[in-house]
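Thread title: Can someone regenerate the structure for this chain?

I was given the following input by a collaborator and told the matching structure tokens would be attached. They weren't. Posting the sequence so someone can regenerate them.
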Amino acid sequence: MQAGDGRPSYDELAALVVEQARVIGELRAENDRLRVENERLSGRVAELERRLGRNSGNSSLPPSADTFTRPEKKPGGQSRRRRGGQPGSAGGGLAMVDRPDTVDDHLPESCTGCGAGPGLADSTGYERRQVWDIPLVTVTVTEHRAHRCRCACGTTTRAAMPATVAGSPTSYGPNLRALAAYLLVFQHIPVERTAQLITDLTGANVSTGWVSGVLGQAAEAVADSLKLIRALLTLGHVLHADETTTRIGSGRRWLHVACTERLTLLGLGPRSREGANALGVLPEFRGVVVHDSLALYDGYPDARHQLCGAHLIRELTAAAEDHPDERWPLQVRWALAELSRPRRPPSRGWLTLRRNGRWSTWSPSTTGWRSGCRCIRVPRAVNRARPATCWSACATAALTCCASPTFRAWCPSPITPASARCGRSRPR
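Best answer:
Regenerated them for you:
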């Protein structure tokens, strides 16, 4: 009911207030829903941008996966040296030899004065040039005949075939088999292309089935060597373990590796602890194993574990790119790179201190590592497939929080100040 002056009545105003309250409630609920959806989409966009920005310089991706972004190359300083070989360098040009394999003498066809044909005895000097080349490679067929000989005593004795000759009437020799194994294993040439390459170069019309069978023969030949390599790796003090992908046919397979500076053992297997165990090294290894903190390596408690420095550098690079306002990634990365260099004798910037009756050497890189690790702060918004791998590892090595003034003068990046941001708890 309306009042006499045309204004709405109390009941109409009350109904309007109730309706407006309902609409406001719906709008607030819609606003809350949109805010949550916006946060979710913003996080997803940030994660996609983070993944899109990954390359071989800030992640474990190989250089062949640098499709959209490539690692930034720092501009090098202006060098005063000219391009090319420098004065005093040994050089890598093709030098002449004193004793060539063959010599071809070229004489003039006729004398330009009288027209007579000169001989080699008439030579008064020569100009020499050497050509390095390979002989024409072509397959040769060798027939082996094992004779039966009858002695004067009446006994007939038969000669044995060489061990390198197969039991079939015809076969390919050891040199051709070695070439096929080299092209397959070392050069990673597919089976079909290996067969075509051997046919084109040597004239031997080998089949893809024969090329595939060479791998099994080669594996039998190096079986004892593999046992020795496996034993030496197991007894070593430091071992690097890793895994990567390779293509076999149209499928992708995982390739596990255990290696040192001089020995390398590769093996196909699933990306699991069973695949790593198939190499026969890690289950019995008792030294220091260096890896990329993949979960499968946690199943070897008898070994001492160390995170790969190259992976830490890439993780710190990614942290610096994801959080440009944070200073600790640059500080820890610089300190880690300095600590990875060969140990230098005490010099400028090094101090020898006496603690608890023992002398110890102090360096700015050690202080930078410790102080940077204790200042680690990972925002809660970070959404990573492997949460805080390098940050947790760095924090366990931290001993102090404050960066000294001496280190500020050495470090090329700003130092994270000791403040409330430098929490002493483990990173989130």
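Residues 10-52 form the longest helix (43 residues).
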